[in-house]
Design a protein that fits this description.
- The structure holds two protein chains of two kinds.
- Chain A contains 17 helices and 17 strands.
- Chain A is α+β, with helices and mostly antiparallel strands.
- Chain A folds into three domains: 368 residues, no CATH class; 127 residues, no CATH class; 65 residues, Arc Repressor Mutant, subunit A.
- In chain A, the strands form four sheets. Chain A has a nine-stranded mixed β-sheet.
- In chain A, a hairpin with a 6-residue loop joins strand 7 and strand 8.
- Chain B is globular and about 75 Å long.
- Chain B has an eleven-stranded mixed β-sheet with strand order 1-3-2-4-6-5-10-11-9-7-8, sandwiched between helices.
- Chain B contains 26 helices and eleven strands.
- In chain B, helix 12 links the parallel strand 2 and strand 3.
- Chain B has a domain of 185 residues.
- In chain B, helix 10 runs antiparallel to helix 11.
- The chains are: A alpha+beta, B alpha/beta.
- Chains A and B meet through loops of A and helix 19 and helix 20 of B.
Chain lengths: 604, 652
């Protein structure tokens, strides 16, 4: 039913390209939030369960979509010296405001899908387009995920919380108010520990809200605008704008930190660690490219040594940075901003309170708008959604259902498995890698194993994953994560055990690794045996080879016997070469020394 | 501040709107001037008094809130001294007259009779062309014709079995085949055509659609299927409830062409149970008004006296029932919008407990106060209607978990009347003293109410005088809260999706401003402004928060009152049906003083005529405890039986 005329306002208006598909076939029963009670019907619950698994799987897939990072703080990039010099004179204060898309199947207040839409305005209904007479019906999963996020960030969870209306006129907001939370956020007062420095960044609050629609502004003149008397037609930048409501009503969690960071690197590290935590807990897929993780940063600087007491008055004028589409961009934008502000203060200028956009092409920030004091959003309690009452038991259950988070994993890896902090960091960077590593260690940990032995094996697994496997993944653009290769944790574990018991050498293992990553393999032992790559440990075979070498190099035998015992290495190398790398190195070593000395008496 | 007045000069589409400015479209400059205390604030088109006047009124209203709060505090200390609450309560008349200058009245009076603009239907529209053929136009009333009919009354109704039948009789006769649903509908449509030129109760009538619905029911009966609880009952729907089959305008030009995608939950339930929708009834724009004069599509007249208003905002609904052009009607009540028109038109209306009936599909005015309820000729009829529409709805989180009513609610009253001489022996009836003692209340109205109290007393009820002193502040608080919520609820009508695009706008903000300036009526604009103002930084504590506190006080007052009684009885309106154009602005706001307390507390309240045989009956309001919708209906039914109110149709 075409309830909206697709009339286009020729000059300034918006076009509604809505096909207005009110498909109520898929209109799911919406869920009330009830404490301690699952109001999902049996059918809905059954539908929801596989979804959570599916969501987790897709999260993992997307989580591995980005290459592992060793942490922005770990690398020093060009221009870091300039920053260091400025930071000697000025203290920078950086706070972060993050919008995270919660990984629910449906929107926050209606039954529309949150997934990628086939076309504009396809995942819409009367509720999320703000039709008259419609009411929001809160999605229970939104509250659950928000609480879990709060718990993962060590926040205090509000057992009594409510929604508020935030009023502002903007065409991308269908109702012209946003259902958000104002004075009673669901989570408050937590922290996130940065992995590199162990610094705790204070989380002021996290609250639920809804996303707005997406707007497209025409840049080309499809139609010549009518002349407006006395006005310059060239002043129009866009002839019309289009609104896509697919994103309208998608649940978001806004996370606000304290002004605790002091550089771009720290802000980027915070973003990376937050992404990691939320991906582990399956709260969001946190994809910066898709906009499911949006980071805005506030930056201010002040001269060092001016105030011993750190109060808000002492802070400089803050500038908000937007359009930060990667962690790299965060680091660069913040550093650029620190340099820019320092240059202004050095030149006796003042910093204006404004919002700036990061321009990736020019590697610079540009003014978006100048702020004129605080905005008046005229918040008031949302009358259509009753206050939410959670029970402590429910929160505890959600807390118990949280998986091990990266910080806990890193601690366990370094303390129980003896890994270096660096290795622990790399392994936990992506949930997929960590899960692979843990599965591998699980296969290696047999009952009754000496703990020291386990540590050795875990280290070996870590080295394989962070070393050769990571390098091979990097070479192949089509397989971007360890999970997308044919290699399984059990295969890697078998490989490690084969090396350990001497069936194959490390060199052989490295040789067959690319094959194992290409094609699925049920048994590494069968594979190496079929290819004849097992280690040769027969003394007679090795001794024959040694004698052969000794015969070909009598002068070296002579020299050895005259005391040049260093030549044993030469013999070992020659023998190993002839053995195609399959000879047991230790055995070869022993036999070489033995034969060199025994044959002395035997043959002469 | 400068962002409010300066016109955007750069027309970068990315910067269309300033997120920081509290611009409510057209009201920007007006709010601005008010905030700056500029006395020369201009009205919208000189048709309406200065905004400042309204705001001055609201300031006094707010001062009153403060007064009551202080009084409440004092009362705690003085409760032992047994002081009469009226010693402290502000005088009712003190603020109603504050804005009512002679000039103000003069201007509004001329404004409020735009007979030439009187349209009662929506004509053929390009966007709804396929509906055009189905919409029956009963003839546009010319101004001369209207003047001629002004003094005349609605054509009298002779003995007519179909039009006088109750809902249960119609359901029974249609089920048994005595009448076909088509016969019932045809009779009602005929009556509608007779009465409509006089009262203009409907915005939109679709005869063909009504006949299609009737035919469906008759087919169902022929197939031997069971019919619904309201099968064959002709019903009218207030035009702020969404109907898939008929355009829904909320009485506003902005939604003139709006075609909903789905039925409101209550409408859907009625249709599922076989009700036949005749049309959509007129209302004050978005439900904002107490006289049904603020409709973009014409003024409704009271069927009992065509020179008087039918009350509002469900004026069309009450008028259609009173004129027998519908048997039942769905209305909505935010601050008295069902009860007051029902009282003015001498019919029965129920504002259910908040959450009893789903609001999904009700075009929101003040979400925390809005309720949907039935208007009918008898308590029996509206009980049947409520039983159909009540109940939890997954689309409305504020609905109550239990349905709370069934058709079994009433029959035992009949038995009680036969068996017991004093069926109300265990009932304590609280009589709201301040309301009965209001100076505005006409003496015959007071007499009628006192007789009604005597009737209850004779049935065995013990009568308890109850003081509800917070009620005057309640009215002020109501207008602040309702306007605040309305300012957000009506923000979606920004011209992007609704309203007629206005030429010449260079920015989207300007487009919104133009669309809203043209689309909204003056009363709606005023309330949006008041609400925007009451929520603005620096004022929210003095207005919105204080009003919330008053709301709490009112709820507490009711709670205390219900410690001493089971039901409260009061008049519905201080004055009764007044002449068309007689009241506007703050005067009209004062009409709601007796109905808003129950709205603020979310309580069920039933309106029924205390003296049904009078030409302009006096409305009586029965308020029950939260959730006790059945209780007030049973009490009302008992009174109706005893007072012989069932023969309302004859009186018309």
């Amino acid at each position: 039913m075409d309830w909206i005329s697709a009339a286009r306002h020729r000059r300034t208006g918006f076009v509604q390209p809505c096909r207005a598909l009110w498909s109520f076939v898929g209109y799911r029963a919406l869920l009330k939030v009830c404490p301690n009670e699952n109001v999902l019907g049996p059918a809905a619950a059954a539908a929801a369960r596989p979804h959570s698994e599916r969501a987790a799987a897709s999260l993992l897939a997307s989580a591995t979509g980005q290459r592992p990072k060793s942490g922005a703080a770990g690398r020093r990039r060009k221009g870091a010296e300039a920053i260091d010099r400025v930071l000697e004179r000025y203290a920078a204060t950086v706070g972060v405001e993050v919008h995270v898309q919660l990984a629910t199947r449906t929107k926050a207040y209606c039954g529309c899908s949150c997934e990628q839409a086939p076309g504009p305005n396809t995942h819409i209904c009367p509720v999320c387009t703000g039709q008259p007479g419609t009411l929001p019906a809160l999605n229970q999963n939104v509250v659950e995920l928000a609480v879990k996020a709060g718990l993962a960030l060590h926040c205090r969870i509000a057992l009594r919380t409510k929604f508020d209306r935030k009023n502002y006129f903007y065409a991308d907001t269908p109702k012209n108010y946003q259902i958000s939370q104002y004075d009673m956020p669901i989570a408050e007062n937590g922290y996130l520990e940065l992995p590199s420095s162990g610094k705790r960044v204070h989380i002021r609050r996290a609250h639920m809200e809804e996303d707005s629609a997406k707007m497209f502004h025409s840049q080309t003149a499809e139609e010549e605008p009518d002349e407006i008397p006395g006005q310059d037609p060239g002043a129009h930048e866009a002839k019309y704008s289009l609104i896509d409501h697919n994103r309208a009503g998608v649940p978001l969690l806004e996370i606000v930190t304290g002004p605790d960071m002091e550089s771009g690197a720290e802000a980027a590290a915070f973003g990376e660690e937050l992404q990691r935590v939320l991906r582990y807990a399956a709260i969001s897929d946190c994809n910066m490219q898709d906009g499911s993780l949006r980071v805005d940063v506030n930056v201010s600087i002040r001269p060092r040594g001016l105030s011993g007491v750190r109060s808000d008055d002492a802070l400089g004028t803050k500038v908000e940075l937007k359009n930060l589409n990667s962690f790299n961009a965060i680091e660069r934008a913040v550093d650029y901003e620190i340099l820019r502000q320092a240059a202004m203060l050095d030149g006796n200028g003042t910093v204006r309170q404004e919002t700036r956009l990061w321009d990736e092409r020019e590697q610079a920030t540009k003014v978006l708008r100048i702020k004129e004091g605080a905005s008046d959003y005229r918040y008031f309690p949302e009358p259509d959604i009753p206050p939410i009452l959670l029970e402590q038991a429910q929160v505890d259950a959600w807390k118990a259902s949280l998986p091990e988070l990266p910080a806990e994993k890193r601690l366990r890896y370094t303390s129980a498995l003896g890994l270096t902090p660096y290795d622990a960091g790399v392994l936990t960077a992506e949930p997929a890698t960590a899960f692979f590593f843990e599965d591998t260690v699980g296969h290696l940990a047999v009952e009754g194993l000496d703990p020291r032995m386990l540590i050795d094996r875990a280290k070996a697994a870590a080295n394989w994953i962070t070393g050769d496997i990571a390098a091979l993944i990097k070479q192949k653009p089509q397989a971007r994560s360890i999970q997308e290769t044919a290699l399984t944790p059990s295969v890697l574990a078998e490989l490690i055990l084969l090396i350990e018991d001497g069936t194959i050498s490390g060199k052989i293992a490295k040789e067959i690794l690319p094959e194992l990553m290409e094609e699925p393999c049920s048994s590494v032992r069968d594979l190496v045996e079929k290819q004849g790559k097992t280690q040769i440990r027969s003394e007679s075979v090795i001794a024959d080879l040694i004698r052969q070498v000794m015969r070909e190099h009598p002068e070296n035998v002579q020299a050895y016997r005259q005391g040049k015992t260093k030549l044993a290495g030469f013999f070992v190398g020659q023998v190993m070469k002839r053995g195609d790398g399959r000879l047991d190195p230790a055995l070869t070593q022993r036999l070489v020394t033995e034969l060199l000395s025994r044959d002395d008496s035997g043959e002469s | 501040m400068s962002c409010l007045t300066s016109r955007p000069t750069t027309v970068n589409s990315r910067l269309f709107f300033s997120r920081t400015s509290p611009v409510q479209g057209y009201v920007a400059s007006e709010v601005h001037s008010v905030l700056l205390q500029r006395p020369q604030a201009q009205c919208w088109s000189c048709r309406y008094p200065r905004v400042t006047e309204a705001l001055t009124g609201m300031r006094k209203v707010s001062a009153l809130c403060i007064g009551v709060r202080q009084w409440q505090r004092r009362r705690v200390h003085r409760v032992e001294k047994q002081l009469a609450p009226s010693d402290f309560a502000p005088k009712f008349s003190s603020w109603t007259d504050s804005c009512g200058t002679a000039q103000y009245r003069q201007r509004t009076r001329t404004r409020q009779l735009p007979v030439s603009r009187n349209r009662w239907w929506i004509g053929p529209k390009p966007a709804a062309a396929h509906f055009a053929s189905r919409i029956v136009c009963l003839g546009e009333s010319s101004s001369s014709k209207l003047r001629a009919t002004r003094a005349a009354s609605v054509p009298a109704l002779g003995p007519d079995p179909i039009l006088q039948a109750s809902a249960s009789e119609i359901v029974e006769k249609v089920q048994t085949g005595t009448w076909t649903a088509m016969q019932v509908v045809e009779r009602y449509l005929q009556r509608l055509q007779e009465t409509e030129p006089h009262i203009h109760a409907y915005i939109n009538v679709d005869e063909q659609f009504a006949r299609e619905q009737a035919a469906l029911i008759d087919q169902k009966r022929e197939r031997g299927e069971a019919l619904g609880l309201v099968a064959g009952v002709p019903i009218s729907i207030k035009d702020n409830l969404l109907t898939r089959a008929l355009p829904t305008t909320a009485g506003s030009l902005l939604l003139e062409n709006y075609q909903p995608a789905e039925d409101a939950t209550c409408v859907r339930r009625l249709r599922e149970q076989g009700a036949i929708i005749l049309g959509k009834t007129a209302l004050d724009e978005f439900g904002m008004g107490s006289s049904s004069e603020n409709c973009a599509f014409g003024v409704v007249r009271n069927p009992r006296d065509l020179t008087r208003v039918p009350g509002g905002s469900s004026g069309g609904s009450a008028a259609s029932v009173a004129a027998s052009s519908a048997l039942l009607s769905l209305g909505s009540d935010t601050g008295g919008s069902i009860r007051q028109p029902a009282a003015f038109c001498g019919v029965v209306g129920l504002k259910p407990s908040y959450g009893r009936v789903s609001r999904y599909g009700l075009i929101a005015y003040a979400s925390s106060l809005d309720t949907v309820g039935p208007i009918g000729r008898s308590v029996e009829d509206i009980t049947r209607c409520l039983a159909v529409i009540a109940g939890p709805d997954p689309h409305d989180l504020t609905t109550l978990a239990d349905t709370g009513i069934s058709l079994d609610a009433l029959p035992d009253i009949e038995e009680a009347l036969v068996e017991e001489r004093k069926p109300l022996a265990n009932i304590r009836l609280g009589v709201w003293t301040e309301a009965l003692e209001m100076p505005q209340l006409a003496s015959e109205a007071r007499l009628a109410l006192q007789e009604a109290i005597a009737t209850f007393s004779s049935l065995g009820a013990s009568v308890v005088p109850v003081s509800m002193p917070s009620f005057q502040a309640a009215c002020a608080a109501y207008y602040i809260l309702a306007s605040s919520e309305a300012s957000a609820n009506l923000a979606r009508y920004d011209g992007v999706r609704y309203g007629v695009r206005q030429d010449g706008a260079r920015t989207a903000a300007e487009m919104t401003r133009r669309v809203r300036t043209r689309g909204f009526g003056p009363e709606v604009k005023r309330r949006i402004m008041l609400g925007t103002f009451a929520l603005s930084a620096g004022y929210v504590d003095a207005y919105y928060r204080r009003a919330m506190q008053v709301r709490r006080l009112v709820t507490d007052d009711f709670w205390r009152a219900f410690q001493h009684c089971d039901f409260l009885l009061s008049p519905v309106s201080p004055t009764g049906a007044f002449a068309l154009g007689a009241k506007a602005g703050i005067d009209l706001y004062a009409e709601d003083v007796l109905t808003v307390p129950a709205s603020l507390a979310g309580l069920p309240a039933l309106t029924l005529p205390a003296n049904p045989s009078a030409r302009l009956p006096t409305g009586m309001q029965l308020i029950g405890r939260f959730g006790d919708d059945v209780g007030v209906l049973r009490l009302g039914r008992l009174y109706e039986r005893v007072a012989g109110a069932a023969s309302l149709a004859n009186a018309t």
